Amino acid sequence: MADFALPRMYGIPYDPRQPTSEYRKYSHPDKQSVSFWSSCAIIAEEETENNLSTLLRSLPPNTLGMHAPSSNLVNNGSLPSTASFRVTRGIVHGQEILEALDRHSGSLRRLVFAKLGPGALSALNQLRNCNALEILSLGASDVNADFDFARSETAVYDQCVEWLRGCYQLKDLSLLRFPSGTQLLKDSLAGPKLRLKSLTLVEVGASAPWYHELHHQAKLECLEVHVPDLGLLALGPASGRCQDLAAGISRCPELTELHAEDYLSVGDISKISEGALKLERISFSGTLVHDEHLMPLANLPRLKEVHIMGDSSFTASGILRFFDKMEGNADHDHRGFSFSAAFQQGTLFGLKEDMRLREAAERAFGGNVTFTYVDSDGEDYYGERPNPNRFLGSP
Length: 395
Description:
Layout: E1 2-5, E2 22-27, E3 33-38, E4 41-44, H1 49-58, H2 71-76, E5 83-90, H3 96-102, E6 108-116, H4 118-121, E7 135-140, H5 149-152, H6 154-165, E8 172-176, H7 181-188, E9 198-202, E10 222-226, H8 230-239, H9 241-249, E11 257-263, H10 266-275, E12 281-285, H11 291-294, E13 305-312, H12 316-327, E14 338-345, H13 351-365, E15 368-374
């Protein structure tokens, strides 16, 4: 067995911050060799794309991989099931790499593109044969922020929808600032073969009501929704998006982890808590999140973590009521419970109440409470991991 580092002659720069990429060659007992690319994490630069695609084409078909073959490779000649290709930094500008990856569509299981440029987006349908993927992450470069992929590249978009709907092994899907990403989800989630366990969405531009299709993903366990556009985020409650998102989440019975960077109301939290009863971890945003947001969460029998990302105005007595309600359900398991708030109004309670809450969490659940306090101008009283001995609020 011999290992060869990816040669500089292919124009692929070495980055010490990324896992080492290797081109490996293994010999079978029958003297035939199987070559594949190991731990592929590269910087994509426009001038290197042709060289990279040439390298991908030079490999035997369906031999792109990540780990050394197990004994099964020697015994039956099969390839490892962890074939992976990742471009984690830089922009993929053209279609050459996508076309070359089609040569390995039968072995690819993990595919990650951090930033696809306009040319690559226009050729995304070249990946339509990669339907055995288990993990897929698609991001777009910032220049595509206003690009309407669904309308501008209709034929390509339609083929991408059919591609996702047919990915029968796909478990983990991420769309990160992907143009028309919400529309792509809306059109794909109902696919009869698509059964996700994890879905991550960073919304950009106009939002299509993708959450109406969430009920088709009954096996979904983890959902992350981020809304970096402050205008879209603020419009959420008024547009009914948050209410509909909560309704969609409530129809995911296997959901254990939810991160929603959205302004969820008390009613939204109640809706989610009624349907997603297996939730263990939840984080959400909002404007002046208060005690009543917490009370519905006490009905979740396995709740282990609550993190509030928005401005909060909790009271010590309200949080203690929340703890009491959780403790009152004898058949619930909240061991190790953690509660944190990133932007708590610092004038609502002082050091004694802070310590009392910490002691209550420790006593009831073996858990902890963490606040980052802010003043009326939004300035931190202290850093990300607050120390109550440095608290400057009311005594």
